[in-house]
Amino acid sequence: MIMEEAMKAFLAIFLLLLATVLPFFGEEAIVIGSKEGEGYLNFPRQVAEGPDGNIYVYDMADAFIKVYSPEGNFLRKIGGKGQGPGEVQREDGLTFCFTPGGKLFFAEYFGGHPWITLMDLTGQLYKVIKLEMKEFFGVADAVSLEDGGFLVEFAFVGRPEKKKDYFLHRSPRELVHLDSQGRILSKIKRTEYLTRISFLDQGADLEIPCVPLFAWTSFKESMVLFSDGLSPKLYVYDYEGKLITEIKTPLPEPNKITQRELDDWRERRKESITDKIWYNQFGRVIEKYKKSIYEKIPNLSGLSLTPERNILISGRLGDEDEERDYWLIDEEGKILAHTRTDAYGIRISPHFIFFASRDEEENICIHRLKRKGNEEEDLLRIGL
Q1: Are 84 and 94 a contacting pair, CB within 8 Å?
Q2: Nearest to 77 by CA among 42, 110, 109, 112
Q3: Domains of the chain by start residue, with CATH
Q4: pLDDT by residue (tens digit) across 109-161?
Q5: Which of 6, 72, 81 is nearest to 34 (CA)?
Q6: SS3 at position 104
Q7: What is the full DSSP assignment across 158-170?
Q8: Which of 19, 133, 205, 376 is the most exposed place for a label (fewest CB within 10 A)?
Q9: Residues near 346 by beta carbon (within 8 Å), at least 6 away in sequence
Q10: Cα separation, 344 vs 352, whole angstroms
Q11: What is the pTM of this model?
Q12: In whole angstroms, what is the distance from residue 121 CA to residue 118 CA?
């Protein structure tokens, strides 16, 4: 009897350890970044597989793109905080990717460098491409094209809209096609949603809920895929901004925002502001936002194109949920795989699946899972 109880205790401890080390369907998902030293990731923001097969992670804490081997060993770092070419001027506003020719490039948001920086994978500066944009801008996202050009999502500062005793602020976005010299060839899509609220005509503003999305990804030749999150359909545009077709997807219809949800948002925003003096002076403006200017809650949070030319759709994270849905669909909208998980930021690369999680201390952890099969099978390994 004593031996039987001891075996049960041992088995319970063993299963607990197994669940800790191998949390995703019995398969080890390696956490990228060491606990200390140069390879430490303090605030990872973006991860991608490079053309050399190594893993690149941008750490917002020190403005370096850190490079790791496929096994997760730290190799080198690129960039870093600075004012010159090859450095990062705005550490919380960088996005990076790779060119078809095997260069790393990055661009920055408002207050960052007004150019696209191209680097060798060793970290050596290759060149910068100045962007011919007259408005004050930031780059929210960018994709490199085969001909040396780019698709770039620009963000601009919009004019505030005066209400009785507060202001609503616009956040214009525009997707454009640039040539290899940074000149605009065409404008594909532009929106000017109201996104923020404040007592002032500039500054001290807070986000309002349920703003439509500006979600896009490169698609077929000379086409992009776009969604505002207000329909189960995805929209295909050519580089001239012409709507080519619509793709029906398995996404649910977006829900209507209710007064209760608006009240819950207001309470959460109030609780999140710890500086009560600032709140009483500026933050209390959220109490003025008693009726949503938008009727629906966006039904997705992001789009990406996979190596096998499928579409990975990231579902919306509910206010009280810890999990979200991911759908993998083909170009016709047919479901290939569907999973629901508390992992987030899932991306599929040629050799890995990347995703993020938070540990018990709310630190962000970047994981990589080696691919074993097709995209449908590998996505399902992260887990329903």
Answers
A1: no
A2: 42
A3: 2-255+298-380 (2.120.10.30)
A4: 999 999 999 999 999 999 999 998 889 999 999 999 999 999 999 999 999 99
A5: 72
A6: strand
A7: PPEEE-SSSEEEE
A8: 19
A9: 312, 314, 326, 353, 354, 355, 379, 382
A10: 15
A11: 0.90
A12: 10
The residue type at 357: S
Q: Tell me if 188 sits within 8 A of 143, measured CB to CB.
A: no
C-alpha to C-alpha distances, 195 to 26, 205, 211, 273, 380, nearest whole angstrom: 43, 10, 6, 19, 35
User: Would you mind telling me the total number of residues written for the chain in this entry?
Assistant: 384
pLDDT digits (tens, 9 = 90+) for 160-172: 999 999 999 999 9
Give CA separation, 34 vs 68, 71, 346, in Å: 10, 12, 21
In the structure encoding, which two tokens stand for residue 39, read together?
């390879």
As to burial, measured by CB atoms within 10 angstroms (0-12 exposed, 13-18 middle, 19+ buried), residue 133 is middle
Looking at residue 288, what DSSP letter applies?
G
Half-sphere exposure of 158 (CA within 13 A, CB side): 21
Radius of gyration of the chain from its Cα atoms, rounded to whole angstroms: 22
Amino acid at 324: R
Q: Where on the phi/psi map is residue 165: left (φ > 0), alpha (ψ -120 to 50), or beta?
A: alpha
Output the six-digit token pair for 238: 């050519």
